[in-house]
Design goal:
four-stranded mixed sheet, about 40% strand, 2 domains, alpha/beta, about 130 residues, 2,3-Dihydroxybiphenyl 1,2-Dioxygenase, domain 1
Length: about 130
């Protein structure tokens, strides 16, 4: 197998319009394509960042909640790189997104902070 790169991350949300606004207006992703699949009563939103296709945002009716705390088995969180952690944290806070305290990775001495998307999906910013 010759893996070349990560192609995309699929996220299922509860409130499609709220999550679409979060990922486009707060996080800054660009809409590549938006499709409503009537037979599934489901939206599929393809999002890119700096021209790179990255996230598929899905909506489905009556989705079960994802256990996050205590930490559940499976994908732990998504992490996005930033140049300035304080500035990025402040921008999230200005948009009404609560963040944790900035912490330092003891192995790299790089700073990071956790926050959540509208469905409590754990997200992280990591300073380059």
């Amino acid at each position: 197998m010759n893996l070349r790169r990560l192609h995309h991350i699929a996220i299922i949300c509860n409130d499609y319009q709220r999550s679409k606004k979060f990922y486009t207006e707060v996080m800054g992703f660009e809409v590549l394509q938006e499709v409503y699949r009537e037979e599934r009563d489901s939206y599929k939103l393809d999002l890119s960042f700096h021209g790179e296709y990255l996230i598929e945002l899905f909506s489905f009716p009556n989705t079960p909640e994802r256990p996050s705390y205590p930490e559940a088995r499976g994908l732990r969180h998504l992490c996005f790189a930033v140049d300035n952690i304080e500035e990025a944290k402040q921008q999230l806070n200005d948009e009404g997104v609560e963040t944790g305290e900035i912490m330092i990775d003891p192995h790299t001495n790089k700073r990071f902070v956790f926050f959540e998307d509208p469905d409590q999906l754990p997200l992280e910013l990591y300073e380059l």
